[in-house]
Amino acid sequence: MTARSDSPSAALYRGMDQPTLERQYNARASVPSFDVEYAATVRDSAQVQVRCTDRVSCVYDERSGEMLDLYRTGLGSPVFLWIHGGYWRAGSRHDNAFAAGGLVAQGISVAVMDYTLAPTASIGEIVRQVRTAVQWLVRAEVTRGLHTERIHVGGSSAGGHLVGMLLADGWTQDFGLPDDVIGVALALSGLYDLTPLQHVQVNGWMRFTPEEIAAQSPERWIPARSHAHLLTAVGGHETDEFRRQTADYAARWRQAGHAGQTVPMPEYNHFDIARTLVEPDGTLVRAVRDAILSPPARN
């Protein structure tokens, strides 16, 4: 673990001391209604699992044995991969099934994945698994007949970070994939610069090294060319740092000349913003659907 300053009032990142950083990056503490929010997430996920009957559970990564649930909507449908948050140490495909609800109703097949949680897995291993899930969706027998030339992706919080690592430069060739394999990318309340996390409680289970921070911070790996369409959103009731991280990453993406759009979600917090994906006519579902149906000009 990176050592903290002996003085809790010392500026560690962007002029903020350790207690301030702790408040800014403690997502759960920023939402007094967290227990209610989580209960609603579990309820909505259970309902989606019952309602969406064409669901198959598959191992996508033989090395780790990790699985995903694929909710299919019919031949020719696009495929969207949902990556859960939980600061890389919590969450599962079961309590994130809500993410399939609205998109399946719009005719989009959705895969909701597990990954090995920290501290069992390092950040690099988690990123490898997420990239393997994309590779599996392109090649798997159960996706035959679906439109897998592009895989659309989305995630919230730590999942938003992992979306950023799917947009990062230089990984697709190692997985035998074309560089334009990612289509629409929905990044919610993500963590795109890992630097401040070495100073807060998250580092207790992540134990970031300087090399990992450099290699796994999406804002440092924005490609010179990209065919992806980035949709970013952050709740208006989130902390200043979560809002800044999203704004900075979206700005850097657009400055590189890539297609990007910010979806305003002013009435939402760090947790209920993602759950709106259960709504077939919700703001985020419509944004994803429209971006898939109307791909931008390529850069």
TrEMBL record:
Molecular functions (GO terms): arylformamidase activity
Entry keyword set: Hydrolase
InterPro entries: AB_hydrolase_fold (IPR029058), BD-FAE-like_dom (IPR049492), GDXG_lipolytic_enzyme (IPR050300)
Signal sequence extent: none
Domain BD-FAE-like: from-to ranges: 77-166
The keyword Zinc is annotated on this UniProt entry: no
Top-level EC class as recorded in UniProt: hydrolase
The EC number(s) this enzyme carries: 3.5.1.9
SUPFAM superfamilies named among the record's database cross-references: alpha/beta-Hydrolases
Domain of life assignment: Bacteria
Protein name from the UniProt record: Arylformamidase
